[in-house]
Design brief:
With 318 residues, the protein is of the alpha+beta class. Helix content is 44%, strand content 18%. The strands form four sheets. It has a four-stranded mixed sheet with strand order 9-10-11-12. Strands 1-3-2 form a three-stranded antiparallel sheet.
Length: 318
């Protein structure tokens, strides 16, 4: 094995079989043609090659796009969120942020250009240069415009961005403070993502507690829409010095607990038995428990709001 082959193999092993010519100093066109003819290397484009026999994977395609974009390119937006392990983000999209001055320009449906990707906005995951989760969320917010969807470019609904942000806080991937730092470093008039990120951060002050499911968010929206008293969220409840459990929502003045039962998390027999045992302990401690499920919030929300309003009014006067 020649020194050139050894160097290429080391690079390709780290990059799922992919390497760029600018990573291999001194490689001549003759050496490249020779190895291509003997099926050892496959030329993807002018700058990027592939070691034959390497499995075709999402990671490999992502490396091809990174190497094509050139020095300074990083994985961003949907692909970055997937690498960070963000809930609901699958390893399907190939999204890259490349310096605005580099060539060739990649397609807008999978790539973006930026002159503002400072080093503290970049981390490494599985060997990839990747935007930090804070920067990733800001970039996702920039993909929410209807124009991007009409043109077939990379697009993410605003609700997905909000859910990704809240999940990242819940999973300790980011904090409100770190999100604000990235926001302040990027925000500007006309910059994609600025307005949505400002709105999301404004309602998430120091006292904000992230809900842990879409179902809980639906209940929060229902409370706001119908002008009901705002409950405390994710509260630890006990009696006589004994901890009973953490509940979803608590209306203190009415001693009313609301639990939102998701389709996924409350379907098992053991989980149901545990819920019933905790409900009995809460009732014995003087709390009333109201359970609301997904179907009710999706299909019977006006009736849920009306009945909840009556319950709160009755328990306020007693």
């Amino acid at each position: 094995m020649t020194d050139l082959d050894r160097i290429v193999n080391e690079i390709a092993e780290r990059q799922h079989g992919v390497f760029a010519l600018d990573q291999v100093e001194g490689a001549t066109e003759s050496e490249i043609r020779t190895r291509s003819k003997t099926a050892r290397w496959k030329r993807i484009n002018r700058r990027v090659l592939l070691v034959e026999g390497s499995p075709d994977t999402w990671e490999q395609r992502l490396w091809v796009r990174l190497c094509t974009a050139g020095a300074g390119a990083v994985v961003g937006s949907r692909a970055a969120a997937a690498l960070h392990g963000a809930r609901g983000m699958r390893r399907t999209h190939i999204d890259v942020i490349q310096p605005a001055a580099t060539v060739p320009n990649l397609k807008a449906r999978t790539s973006r250009w930026s002159n503002n990707v400072p080093g503290w906005h970049v981390t490494a995951i599985e060997g990839f240069p990747v935007t930090t989760m804070e920067r990733t969320i800001f970039d996702l917010a920039g993909l929410t415009t209807p124009a991007r969807r009409r043109r077939g470019w990379a697009y993410v609904p605003a609700g997905v961005v909000e859910r990704t942000l809240d999940n990242a806080i819940t999973d300790d991937l980011v904090s409100i403070r770190s999100l604000k730092m990235v926001y302040l470093s990027l925000a500007g008039r006309g910059r994609p993502g600025t307005r949505l990120m400002r709105e999301l951060l404004e309602v998430r002050g120091d006292g904000f507690v992230v809900t842990e499911s879409v179902l809980e968010d639906r209940f929060v929206a229902l409370v706001a829409e119908f002008g009901l008293p705002e409950p405390r969220r994710q509260v630890q409840v006990g009696s006589d010095g004994k901890w009973i459990g953490r509940i979803d929502f608590l209306f203190d003045a009415q001693r009313l607990i609301v639990e939102t039962d998701g389709r996924r998390y409350h379907s098992g027999r053991i989980a149901t038995q545990q819920d019933h045992r905790r409900d009995l302990e809460l009732l014995a401690a003087g709390w009333q428990i109201l359970r609301i499920d997904w179907w009710q919030l999706e299909n019977d929300r006006y009736e849920v709001a009306r009945l909840l309003q009556q319950i709160l009014a009755r328990r306020t006067t007693t």
